[in-house]
Amino acid sequence: MGHENDCIFCKIVNGDIPASIVYEDDYVLAFTDIGQVTKGHTLLIPKKHQENIFELEEDTAAQLFRVAPTIANAIKKAFDPAGLNMVNNNGKAAMQSVFHYHLHFIPRYGKDDGFQPHWEDNSDNYSAEDLMDIAKKINKHLS
To answer: How many Å apart are CA 110 and CA 38, to the nearest integer?
Structure first.
């Protein structure tokens, strides 16, 4: 179903490159990440090549997120993590390295488990009016 000749994830979908398959149906494929940021790190991808969230078709998103809780709960039962991060990077500036949409499931075992996201709190820089203005600008472009 993949169409990108040089896309590693399309090659996995097509069976040209082996992967440790966690789940597969007609629309999506889940497999363990070769890098294993933490034990159980799994990727969920659409079989159809779509580069990122900006290209992701509504039906594809529905198929992915229909399966996402199942994958998360299987990881939870298998490894009993303290928590789970779901991460999706879109575009080079967001550190996307494979340009085929993929959702990371990263089990969390504690602050020194190898995954260190950092969230900056800029709430002091935005008034309630600023937040309303931002919301209106985004809302204006919803289709």
So the answer is: 10
Residue 65 CA to its chain's centroid (Å): 10
116: tokens are: 């260190």
pTM here is: 0.91
Which pairing describes strands 21-24 and 83-87: parallel, antiparallel, or unpaired? unpaired
The verdict on residue 105 lying in a domain is yes
Supply 123's token pair. 């709430």
In contact, 9 and 102? CB cutoff 8 Å: yes
Q: Is 102 a catalytic residue?
A: yes
Q: Which of 3, 102, 104, 141 is catalytic?
A: 102
β-strand partners of 107 = 84
Q: Is residue 1 part of a domain?
A: no
pLDDT 10s digits, 50-100: 999 999 999 999 999 999 999 999 999 999 999 999 999 999 999 999 999
Residue 71, domain extent: 8-139
The residue type found at 105 is: F
Upper half-sphere CA count for residue 119 (Cβ side, 13 Å): 2
pLDDT of 118 reads 85
Instruction: For residue 2, tell me if it sits in a domain.
Output: no
